[in-house]
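User: Just a sanity check before I run the rest of the batch. Below are the structure tokens for the first item. I only need the designed sequence back.
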């Protein structure tokens, strides 16, 4: 590639970059960024609410499982006591 071609590419890239910065820094672009950030925050809040619901459900399941195990242990202890009394 010739020197003139390289210079033309450099100048074109510089102009394109400058135009891109102006477009990205415009008021319209800021509105888009603001709305996108607001949507992300709403999504995060919804995910956190769902995570809390799941955690509460898991806590309920864990409490029920512990209650079942306690009943089982009590029943086993009662049967051991009955067996020792019969013997």
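Assistant: Here's the designed sequence for the first item:
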């Amino acid at each position: 590639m010739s020197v003139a071609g390289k210079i033309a590419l450099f100048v074109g890239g510089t102009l394109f970059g400058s135009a891109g910065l102006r477009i990205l820094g415009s008021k319209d672009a800021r509105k888009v960024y603001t709305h996108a950030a607001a949507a992300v925050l709403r999504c995060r809040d919804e995910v956190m609410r769902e995570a809390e619901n799941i955690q509460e459900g898991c806590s309920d399941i864990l409490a029920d499982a512990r209650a079942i195990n306690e009943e089982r242990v009590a029943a086993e202890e009662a049967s051991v006591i009955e067996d020792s009394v019969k013997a």
